[in-house]
Design brief:
- This protein is of the alpha/beta class.
- It has 10 helices and 12 strands.
- A 6-stranded mixed sheet has the order 2-1-3-5-6-4, with helices on both faces.
- The longest helix has 16 residues.
- The termini are close together.
Length: 294
Amino acid sequence: MAARTDPLASQALCVGLIGRGIQQSRTPKMHEREAARLGMDYAYFLVDFDQLELDDAALPDLLSAGATLGFQGFNVTHPFKQQVLPLLNALSDEAAAIGAVNTVVYERLAATGEIRLTGYNTDCWGFAESFRAGLAGAVMRNVVQFGAGGAGAAVAYALMQLGVENLTLVDSDFNRALALAAHMQHAWGARVQAASAMPERLGLADGIVNATPVGMGKYPGTPFPAALLRSNHWVAEIIYFPEETELLRAARGLGCRTLSGTGMAIGQAVRAFELFTGHQSNMAAMASHFAMAA
């Protein structure tokens, strides 16, 4: 089942995914198969800024066009999870606390017919559920997270909710890591810090999380030298295409406990589907749809 390309040719409930380099995404098939299971007419479209050769500046016009075309909303992925914030009319409490959005829902006001754009974050819940299932009992004293962008903000928030005692944020843009740390310190104080002294921090770490795009097909490699891994680290990814990144492969080779990005991808889709449709989704069913989309 391929992602559809002509929303005007269907009367289905229409949603989409906005991002760059997203042709391997399984989200369209997950959503459409879950809708079919529930007897819904549902179309999910990819809006790949790379494939369409669009500048980032096209994002406001694209969101406006979605409202005009009758879309129910969009999922939002790299690199737009924070860029989209000033274009929205409202944020859920969790999205506001995280400072990033991965789901935008169009809501028409009955009194005026005005369409309001509300932003939500389902990445946080998706990562937390995946972590509980796949890394139960992991030591959480010191965790180093690579990536302080939109996905990184959601994952960092989830990690602190899961009980991490000290979280160190590392990003290729140190100012971005500083900004996320400052934002999170409102809730967790000095337990969240930004750092650039990576080898020293990794030497003290119990766990490592990759919340960067490094490891995707478009960005091959690892977010830090794999030689810094130790067998007593646990390693979590948020990337799911490919399901086994170079980082996970290196970690498994050392005997580390690992967590792929699959569970987060499934969990965020469950919550996003419910926001778009108002119908409860099923985690087991969505996991089956994910596997079938391979």
